[in-house]
Amino acid sequence: MNETAKEGLKPSVIEGRELLPPGSKHCRFCFQTKPLKHFKTTNQIKSGYTSACRKCYLSRQKQYYYDNREKRLAYQTKYNRSLDPKVVSAYGRAYYKNNKAAMLETERRNRLKSMREEINYLKIRVHDQKKEIWSLEKSCKEKDIILFRLSLQEALRER
After folding, report:
1. Full domain range(s) for residue 99
2. How many CB atoms lie within 10 A of CB 56?
3. Residue 44, SS3?
4. For the segment 61-102, what is each residue's pLDDT rounded down to a tens digit?
5. Domains in the chain: how many in total?
């Protein structure tokens, strides 16, 4: 037990490792401490989060794809050719027939979600346009006030 622990203070370093604030994790590629929302979840690691942040994870995935592009394209071509369109369409028809109600409900929910997103987007646009109008009105009022003051000053000078 070190001296800071005896005094009741929290040690900043334990066995050569820095303590991290709660709800954060250290990325092993960019070496930055980030909130957990910046890490992908996984069941394969004890902490439940990947060791690389989302940004580093994505850049590594892209790099792997570019390094192995021909190999990946060959695999995808082979996989796509192995699918018989007749079998796939028959499976799709059977699945739709057996799960019609659930599929229609999902489609309805997705449609409602996209409508809500569009409404929110339009509300934001309207709000932004109102802000712009208010700022223009304000600037016009300020110009009118300045012009009024100038005309008032000229009228007072003439007296």
Report:
1. 83-158
2. 20
3. coil
4. 999 999 999 999 898 888 777 777 777 788 888 998 999 999
5. 2
Tell me the chain's radius of gyration from C-alpha atoms.
32
Q: Please indicate, yes or no, whether residues 123 and 153 belong to a single structural domain of this protein.
A: yes
Same domain, 87 and 152: yes
Together in a domain, 105 and 124: yes
In this structure, are 29 and 78 located in the same domain?
A: yes
Report pLDDT for 159: 65
The CA dihedral of 41, 43, 45, 47, to the nearest 10 degrees, is: 60
Answer yes or no: is 6 within a domain: no
> Which of the two residues, 158 and 91, has the higher pLDDT score?
91
Cβ atoms 26, 20 nearer than 8 A: yes
CA-nearest of 34, 73, 75 to 53 is: 34
Residue 34, helix vs strand vs coil = strand
Q: At what angle do helices 85-98 and 100-158 cross, to 10 degrees?
A: 80
User: Quick one: 151 and 97 in the same domain?
Assistant: yes
Tell me, yes or no, if the pTM score tops 0.90.
no
Q: Measure the CA–CA gap between 133 and 44, rounded to whole angstroms.
A: 54
What secondary structure does DSSP assign to 125-153, as a single string? HHHHHHHHHHHHHHHHHHHHHHHHHHHHH
